[in-house]
Amino acid sequence: MGVSLYGSKPIQLVEAADSMRLFHPAMTVNPRLLVACLALTASCVISASANEPTRYQVPAQSMVDMVDAVQIPQTTLAPNNEWLMMLERPALPSVTDLSQPELRLAGLRINPRNNDLSRTNHATAIRFVRLADRLEKLVQNIPANARIGDAAWSPDGKRVAFTLVRENAIELMVVEVANGTQARRVTERALNGVVGRPFSWFSDSKSLLIAAIPQTRGPAPKAPSMVSGPLIQENLGRRNATRTYQDLLKTPHDEALFEHYATAEVARVWLDGKLDAIASGVVRAMMPSPDGQYALVQTIKRPYSYSVPVSRFALKTEVRDALEPNVGQVVRVMSDLPMAEDEEADPDAVRKGPRQYSWRSDANATLAWAQANETRKNGISDYFFVLSSPFDGEPTMLAKLELRFQSVIWGNDAVALVTEVSRKLRKTSTWRLYPSDATKAAEKIFERSTEDRYSDPGTPFTESNGRGGRVLNLSPDGRAIYLNGAGASNDGDRPFVDRFDLDRRETKRLFRSEAPYYDVPLSVFDSPQSGKTANANVRLLMQRESVTDAPNVYVRDLASGKMSAVTRFTTPKNPLAGVTKEVIRYKRRDGVELSGTLYLPATFKRGDDPLPLLMWAYPREFRSAEAAGQITGSPYRYVRPAFSGPLPFITQGYAVLDNPTMPIIGEQGKENDTYLPQLIASAEAAIDEVVRRGVADRSKIAVGGHSYGAFMVANLLAHTKLFAAGIAESGAYNRTLTPFGFQAEDRTFWKARDVYAQMSPFNYADQIKTPILLIHGEADSNSGTFPLQSERFYQAIKGLGGTVRYVILPHEDHGYRGRESVLHRLWESVRWLDRYVKNGDKKPA
Prior knowledge:
By secondary structure, this protein is α+β, with helices and mostly antiparallel strands.
């Protein structure tokens, strides 16, 4: 039971302390008396909580500075490699921004005022910088502090289209980069953001495919004034297992609202404003063909489901003509799939029928898609098909895949790379296909465990082909590709660029990031050397950062090593300046190698008294100890001012152990059989290591986490006395509320009752004596982490006499974005840590 404090008192706070026990443990209590006394206890708690400040609170200024730190702009290279677009990102939105009207329908969250998806990120300004001479331009004719949604280069690199998100509409804007910076509106038609990005360039760079609000649309359906009858769902003996989805349709009125806001008119709009209608309906996706002749359009059909989100509704996929005189004409219905409410428990299960449609980017108009082999005979999981215009023949099968199709990167008629993956087997492979010759056998070029980051060969670089598509960035002689790797190693992540010969399967290292920098390759520029077409003069567009320097973009000549700055972002005022950052390694008692990133305040010196420490973690599942022991992260990355996670607490005198590995290792499907002992052993090892180093006081260590990390916190406090306090954000604590699986657990509750019971800290709430702070967003949309999870967990701990505080952040989703909420979360957390860790007198066993 809590106090609703929205409006003038926006934070809902409830707290209980173990000092409020009503009975001696040995007393025999009449059950009716117990109920009455518990009710009295609840009223006392509410009364006590009501005396606390319930408005949004602000933490220390150093934490405020971290929240308000200037964001580094997001950068995107033009297809012609001449300009770099920089999207300036704003500070956090206010809670008022988050409190805009919101409809939660079919798994979507819609702002009915402007027909956009709510809670989307925005930029406030657009700048361009020319690589050749660093000339900068600022886009004009947009409001100060504009809300800029999607932005995309035209295929020829001469223009940028972007959405201007107004209070009551989404407008399509275009700016010419070379001839000026005056943005202008292309069409008076408002766009429909419910479909995702509501525009795409055609290959001519003179027209765009858009999803517009229908001109004939009337007012939104009104809720019925009277209830006409009960709401009924039924299942007649059919197995229909689904995970715990949020924001589903619940009533016929919901259906009507969904259809009203999701219906769009797909059209081709020319830069002079001329508009050609192509299709209309509840649009799910749309893609123009590389030659500009066609548009692929996917629409949702009735009946709508009350059990699954829109991604599993009935779906029709069509190819339509996009040019006069036949604009809008259906060329071919590619598939017409029924609703998919039946989800298999198999972790590699996919939707039946054709899926993952895309255009072959190096061809005029060739569709590609994957389709499951439903029988899985002969070891085949997926087929990969293509079909070229005029789309009147039979599809060509390019590949039979042992695993599930993941992606394709096209090169030319002689090369395309298809990647397959299995979540169940933790395995991935990449195959070379010969698109012009389907009879030629596919060749496997890479294969590895998805857990093994050290053996990751990298991802192929792509380049624009001038028609709006991305193709393999082939070497000048056409024999090799370039690979962009994260470079995971025992030294941490060291990004690299390799040249990979497709025929010889030979790799040559061209670049690797070196200390004290963290260099991330963004693009490869290559040109033939005179008389040596097999080699190339390679330059990299790369982003460089260090522990003390914020990221900036450079061009690096690999032959000479010369680097030229493209951007000059200043390193913002950083309250974390001077902190010590170290990737530490240690072992679990069973020999598993573990690691984490240790941060120490700038004022701490070796030999000083140990500090209070906050450990912030997130468990992950592995099949092997070798993979679990691999190092993640880099000691040379910029220590960014962060508003989430544990880093802000460094400014308040806490040491932080960020992301200490908490591996859960086991055979496929049974990893969680030993979840608790492995989790506890990892926590013990981390504590032993920071104490051994003399940086932490064993009696003053807290543990925190978000989502599955919060679940970890609750389990550690329920089953150990290792910590002085805990912070659990947006977690799930009762696994019977996610009975068809969670995280990497694919067994249902009914197949693994003991595992679900043992892993649910709710079942052991009576053992939680360590103070725990629960924080949850009131509008959490993440599958499984309903706010009810924290509410019931709080009630259990409170009813059993534990020390607990429960903070509900109004209008917040799974992650917290409102500035007031973020600051309040820090205020609550540091107050909790100071009370029970820094200044606490309770000593963990």
